[in-house]
Fold:
Amino acid sequence: MTISSTTVRNSYSGDGSTTTFSYTFKIFQDSDIQVIIRSSTGTETTKTITTHYTVTGAGVSAGGTVIFTGGNIPTATETVVLRRNIPQTQAIDYIANDPFPAESHEEGLDRATMAIQQIQEEVTRSLKLSKTNTMTSTEFTVGAAARANKILAFDTNGEISVTQELGTNRGNWATATTFNARDIVKDSSNNNIYIANTTHTSVGTTPISSNADVAKWDLIVDAQAATNAANNASNHASNSSNFANNSSNSANTSANHSANSSNFANNSSNSANASSNHSANSSNFSNSASNHASNSSNHSANSSNFANASSNHSANSSNFANNSSNSANTSANHASNSSNHASNSSNHSANSSNFANNSSNHASNSSNFANNSSNFANTASNSANAANSARDAALAAADNFDDVYLGSKTTDPTLDNDGDALTAGDLYYNSIGNVLKYYTGSAWVAITSGGITDLVQDTTPQLGGALDVNTFSITSTSNGNITLQPNGTGDVVLSADTVKIGDANTDAILTTDGTGDITISTNSGSNSGTVKIFDGVNGNIEITPNGSGVVKLDGLSYPSSDGTANQSIITDGSGNLSFTTIATTLSYSSGTATGDGTDTTFTISSGRSVEDVLVFVNGFQLTPTTDYTISGTTLTFITAPANNAEITYRYLPLGGAYTSANFTGNGSSTTITIDAGRAVNDVLVVVNGLTLVPTDDYTISGTTLTFATAPANLAEITVRYLRLS
Structure:
C-alpha cells in the first residue's frame, strides 16, 4: 500500500456516555495505538489495552475504532487522544538470492514512513527555531547539581545558558538566621536591599556593609546612596545659590571699585592739570627773575660808569665814591642772588614738568585700572549667571530625582512629591510593609514580595542579562501557545547538545506554523546533509546525505543512486544495501543410493540441511529429523534402509527458507493448523510416507489445512513448507 495521509493522531472530547472513538490512520496490530486521557487540570494518563479499552481495524488502511470498557468511559471534562505508536524496530529479514519480497519490503517502507510521521508529530509540538533562525548550539553542559534551582536563559549572544536562580524575600536581615543563596533581605539600618550569594547562618549586626559576612551578600538596591545623593544634590543646590549671591555681591563691589577708580582717574587728571599750571607759573617766575637779573646787570654797568665818573671827580666827591662803591658791591651780590634764584626756578620748572609727566602716567594707569575693573565686573556678572544656571540645573536634577524616588511612605501614593501625576517607573519605600515598590503605570508593585515574578504587569519587559528558570519551566495557561519571535531575519537559536520536546511519557509533534516545508540540516545548512518533509497532500520526505555520505536507517546504508529496472536491493551482511539483478530461475537436482540393510550413513551434496532435501526410500517420503539427519555432506538414517532399498535424494533450490511441521492423526480430525500465507501448491503433505495430491487429498484456507479423509489414528503427518520466493 501507499501512505497517502499524514494523520497520526485523533482527538475527541468525552461526554460520559460515548464509548467508541474512531482513529483514521492505519496500524498493523492492536498494540500499535496509544490511548491517552487528558483531564481538565492537564493531567495525562496513558491507558492500558484490554484493561481500559479494546481495538478494532488493525491492518485496515482507513483505520478503526477504540472501544472503552465499562467503568473507563471518558467524562465530559476529559479529552481522548488516539496516537499511532508503531514500534521503532525493523523485523523484516531479507534472504540473499531470494525473489524480491515486494509485500514485506513495502510494509517495511510503510513502517519507516509511519515512524517518520510519528517523529514529525512530535517535532511539530516541540519548541524550535524558525527556518531562518540560527543558534550555535542547542545543548548545555551544566550538570544536574550545578543547574539545580537555576533558570534556562539566553546570554548576550542569544545562546542558551543556565543562569542564576530567582530570589526569595526574607524581610529584614537578622542575626543567627540561616539564609539560602538568592534570599533577598532589607538592611533596616539604612534600608539597603541585598541578595545572598552563599548559603550561610548570619552573625553580628547591621549594617551589612560592615558585617563580617558582607562578602556573602550582593547589594541590589542602594537606598542609603540614593538618600545621600538626594541630600548632596540639595546641599549642592544651596551652595550654588550662596555662590550666586556672593558673585552678585562681588559684582557690586567691583562696580563700586570701578566708580572709585574713575574718580581717582579724574583726580589724577586734575592734579596733572594743576601741576602743568604750576609749571607754567614757575616758568613765568623764572622769566621774571631772568629779567630782574638783566636789569641788575645794566644797573651794575651804570654804577660802574658812575664810579668812573665819580673817580674822575674824586677830588671833589671822595665820600660819595665810597658809597657808590658799596652800592655797586651790593648790587653785584643782588645780581648773583637773582641768577641763583633763576637757576632754582629753572630746576623747579624741570621738576614740575617731571611731576606733570608722572601725573599723566598715573592718570593713564588709573584709566587702565578702571577698564580692568569694568572687565572684572563683567566677568563677575557672567560668573554669577553661570552659578545661577548651575544652581537651577542642580535644583532641576534634585526635583527630577525627587519625582522618581518618592522616599519613604506608609501608603501607596497617588501623586508625586510635587503633586503631579505618577509615571511608570516611579519608586518609593513602604515603611509599613518594609518593601520597595515600583509603579507600573496603573498600580504599585512590591519588588521584593513577589511583584517581579508577575511579568504580566510589565508591558515592555526587557532582559538585562541571562534568564535563569531556576529548575522551572516556561509555561502557558488555557492551552495557550508559547511563541519565540525574533526581529526581522533573526533566528531562534537553541544552544544545547540535546533538544527535548513534548510532555513526559507522551508523544511530541514538530510541525510548521503554516504551509511551509520542514528541513533538518547541520552546520547552519552549509555543506550539510538534510532531511526535508514537504508540506501538502502526498508531500515527499527527502533524505539527502552530505557529499559522498549515505542514508542510514536502523544501521542499514542505502544506495546513493537508483538501480536499473527490475533490480532488487540486497545486503552484504554488514549493513550495506545495494541494487542487484537476482536470477529468477530455480535449480533442481537429485541423487540416488542403494541400501544394504546395515549402513545408515550416505554422502550427499554439500551445503544442505534436513529441510531442503526430500528423501524417499522405495517411494515413501521420510520425515526430516524424525527419520534422518544431515551434517555437512553426511545424511544419517535413524534406521538403516533395507537391503537393495531404492534411496532417492531430491535437492530443493537454495537461497530461501524451508521449514516443516509434524502432526499425528487421530482417525477423526480432518483439520490441522499450519503457517499463515500458504496455498495448496507450496506445501508438501506426507502421511505415513505417502505424498498427498493437492486439492484432491487436502485443501488450505488461511491457516487451516483440511484433509479430504481424516488420517488414521497415530498416522505420521509431515507438512513441508516450500519457498515462496
